[in-house]
Amino acid sequence: MNDVSALPQLQELLGHKFANEKLLLESLVHRSYINEHPTFPTGQNERLEFLGDAVLELVVTEFLFKSFDSDEGKLTNLRAALVNAKILAEISNEIGFEPFLFLSKGEQKDAGSKARMYILANAIEAIIGAIYLDAGFEAASNFIHRFIITRIKYIIDNQLFLDPKSRFQEASQEVVGVTPNYKVLNEHGPDHNKKFVVGLYLGDTLIAQGEGTSKQEAQESAARAGLEAKGWTNRKSANLNLPA
Predict the structure, then answer these.
(1) Residues 147 and 208 occupy one common structural domain
(2) Which residue among 54, 132, 166, 197 is least crowded, i.e. fewest CB within 10 A of its CB?
């Protein structure tokens, strides 16, 4: 959209009226836009993102500490699941502020890409930083509770506090008494954009395959496919017994 006049509409979506609209504007500016428009009246949003990330972590940490009588490791897993880039990007899409971002022409063409996911996640952290500077900790906390912490039940119900590899290993050991292993089946593409295909095995049996831009990403993809193939997608964790 790249339209400063649209900021009042965005403030309605965010549920916060800025006293200093320049903070909101800066939170929306990706560094690629500044490269194309060096005279733009604000800087890019990375400083606000840095601040907002810290505020987000503190608010989420305090909420989890007060809400769950669990050890540090379990709380850390929950926090990581609640503030990861994928979840934040999904929340950004639900709020609907992507059209308000100031992106370069090249970045505007990459809608739906992994790079866009991180841009959206970083932007929501920058907005949190902007709200904090504009109105203080309570206003930022209210925003985080309204849009982010409300996701906690969804994360617990869907076991998102465990990564797919951990979930598959736990289920396979419990159900069949076997620890899974992963093998690289194929590598293709140029060095700067290599893709890996990884097989997930129980013993010598191939359960599923996954692809990714790194071996770790391909393993997680294979584990996710394996959970579906074995019908273990909704299996409850025996190790992280957290109240809803």
Answers:
(1) no
(2) 54
pLDDT tens sequence across 51-105:
999 999 999 999 999 999 888 888 988 998 899 998 999 999 999 989 999 999 8
Number of domains, the chain: 2
Q: Which residues does the annotation mark as catalytic?
A: 53, 125
Q: Are residues 168 and 133 in the same domain?
A: no
Where among 157, 186, 201 does a domain terminate? 157
CA distance 205 to 79: 35
Question: What are the phi and psi torsion angles at 108 (to 5°)?
Answer: -65, -25
Q: How many residues does the chain have?
A: 244
In a domain, 244, yes or no: no
Residue of 127, 128, 151 lying closest to 140 (CA atoms): 128
Question: DSSP secondary-structure letter at 29?
Answer: B
208 and 103 both lie in a single domain: no
In a domain, 240, yes or no: no
d(C-alpha 235, C-alpha 110), whole Å = 35
Q: What is the dihedral of CA 53, 59, 61, 66, to 10 degrees?
A: 180
Q: What is the pLDDT of residues 149-201, one digit of tens each?
A: 999 998 888 777 877 888 899 899 999 999 999 999 999 998 878 999 999 99
Closest CA to 49 of 26, 79, 72, 32: 26
Predicted TM-score (pTM) of the model is 0.75
- Tokens of residue 87, six digits: 């979840």
Question: Which distant-in-sequence residues (6+ apart) come within 8 Å of 18 by Cβ?
Answer: 7, 11, 24, 130, 131, 134, 135
Same domain, 147 and 170: no
In terms of domains, do 152 and 168 share one? no
